[in-house]
Amino acid sequence: MDIDQLNETALRMAAPGKGILAADESTGTIAKRFKSIGLESTEEARRDWREMLFRTEPAMNQRISGVILYDETIRQKAEDGTPLPEIIANAGAIPGIKVDTGAKPLAGSPEEKVTEGLDGLRDRLAEYYELGARFAKWRAVIGVDADEMPSQYCVDVNVHALARYAMLCQEANIVPIVEPEVLMDGDHDIERCYEVTEFVLKRLYQELFDHGVVLEGTVLKPNMVVSGKDCPEQAGVEDVADMTIQCLLNAVPAAVPSIAFLSGGQSDIDATAHLNAMTADHDLPWLLTFSYGRALQAAPLKAWGGKKANVEAAQAAFNHRAEMNGLATLGEWKESLEK
């Protein structure tokens, strides 16, 4: 384990003005997104879509620090024969890889989820390193309601898996992104989201400590503290920023070099506005950035529509969203820039 290398990579992933593009949708998930634009999800179509993003300038050079890939994507070559991870690296970004195999019903509590994928992970990580990956991602899914979910059982099995994954990553000199996502699905209020998020993060860091994970070589990818999507009273931008920061200060050790927020189903503008509010007015021990999927890709996907004639428009849309979120990492975004 090379701690200096891990720490250097973790800091590069949150370089000021930059963030992470999550392009690690499973084949099933990307098929649903392609269906929304009337496009069949073939291997070639998936390659073309992602290659187009990875070749977008200036976004990839100036605003994207790393790209999370899917197993299929890290093995693919561009139309000209260049491996896709090489295109990412040539743009100055770091290739990464999703290594979990998805959230499945939790035995004994099937309404909750547990993320699987630890079997054979050591060997897969060694292969991914050879393919160019220098960081990895594992997502735990924590459902929440007004009082009963999540169960202690659900939280414990998920943070245990995250810790085992993280230790295996560091052993392979790959930075682990640990992602305990408290879902925004439901009608719970922001106070309930705060309560659950703080509990999950405290349990996570206890488990990482028990497993010997070196925090300086990790990245946290948490949800923001927000109201449930169906909550009749939605918290404002400043409330989300203040409560998220307070939650993180209470639960996340200062040794963690960077925090890259997930968008979690927020609108493009909300995800950017919330991040900006957190970076604009707070002096924090960690670098804050984004690790967005839909919040970076939805607009360019709609503009692309699966047609070569629309590549320029799609790349313009990606450039815009990357620029807006890059500014948000610096506290320099304004809503007037969206017009």
TrEMBL record:
Pathway in which this enzyme or protein is active: Carbohydrate degradation; glycolysis; D-glyceraldehyde 3-phosphate and glycerone phosphate from D-glucose: step 4/4
SUPFAM superfamilies: Aldolase (SSF51569)
Catalytic activity, as annotated: beta-D-fructose 1,6-bisphosphate = D-glyceraldehyde 3-phosphate + dihydroxyacetone phosphate
EC id: 4.1.2.13
Gene Ontology molecular function, alphabetical: fructose-bisphosphate aldolase activity
Superkingdom classification of source: Bacteria
Cited InterPro entries: Aldolase_TIM (IPR013785), FBA_I (IPR000741)
Top-level enzyme category: lyase
CDD domains: FBP_aldolase_I_a
The entry's keywords: Glycolysis, Lyase
Pfam families: Glycolytic (PF00274)
GO terms of biological process kind: glycolytic process
Cited NCBIfam families: FrucBisAld_I (NF033379)
Family note: Belongs to the class I fructose-bisphosphate aldolase family.
Name of this protein: Probable fructose-bisphosphate aldolase class 1
